[in-house]
Amino acid sequence: MTTTTVRFASFVLGGLIAASVFSIPVFAAGDDSETMPVCKKGEVYDKKTKKCVKQSSANITDENRTDYAYSLAKAARYDEALAMLDTVKDQNNAEVLNYRGYATRKLGRTDEGISYYLQSVKLDPHYAKVREYLGEAYVIKGQLDLAKDQLTTIKTICGTGCEEYQDLHAAILDPSKI
């Protein structure tokens, strides 16, 4: 390679890196398919327009707000996720309660998180993701028998091949995976 070729390759690679670092919206951390792009603070991702809009002026559905709160939580922006969930009109919703539990648990308030998970389970006993997160909370508390109960329930909901079963099973075997 000539010096010019190396410089050109470095220029192109540097441009690609810069473009990927400075692009907005930023995608949430984690590999869950349910997450959507996350925006800078004070904005919300609008699924209809597929862009970030000011949160205060947005005419966003409860479902969109709930999904966006989950994306914020998966991006480790837990306080923002809770604030977004506060804007949802229907607070008595299995997903809202589950994601509130998730963000709360990730903030270190495991018992409070469990209380939200249990409310979510009452509303939708066949919601596998809340069962997974409830099981993970029990693992954190060292209550492996209760975590295994959730794993058994998940197996009846979606089998052993679903992501929720596999993730909770991995957490029970190795709590550092939570």
**Average pLDDT level:** 85
User: Given the helix and strand composition, which structural class is it?
Assistant: mainly alpha
Stated plainly, the CATH topology of the largest domain is called: Serine Threonine Protein Phosphatase 5, Tetratricopeptide repeat
Task: Report the radius of gyration as a whole number of Å.
Answer: 20 Å
Notes on the structure:
This protein has helices at 3-22, 62-74, 78-86, 94-106, 110-123, 128-140, 144-158, 163-173, and strands at residues 26-27, 37-38, 43-46, 51-54. The strands form 2 sheets. The chain has a two-stranded antiparallel ribbon with strand order 1-2. Strands 3-4 form a two-stranded antiparallel ribbon. It is built from 8 helices and 4 strands, in the order αββββααααααα. It folds into 2 domains: 23-89, no CATH class; 110-178, Serine Threonine Protein Phosphatase 5, Tetratricopeptide repeat (Alpha Horseshoe). Helix 4 runs antiparallel to helix 5, helix 5 packs antiparallel against helix 6 (128-140) and helix 7 (144-158) packs antiparallel against helix 8 (163-173). InterPro entries: TPR-like_helical_dom_sf, TPR_rpt.
List the helices and strands and how they pair.
Layout: H1 3-22, E1 26-27, E2 37-38, E3 43-46, E4 51-54, H2 62-74, H3 78-86, H4 94-106, H5 110-123, H6 128-140, H7 144-158, H8 163-173
TPR repeats: 94-127
Signal peptide: 1-28
Pfam families: TPR_16
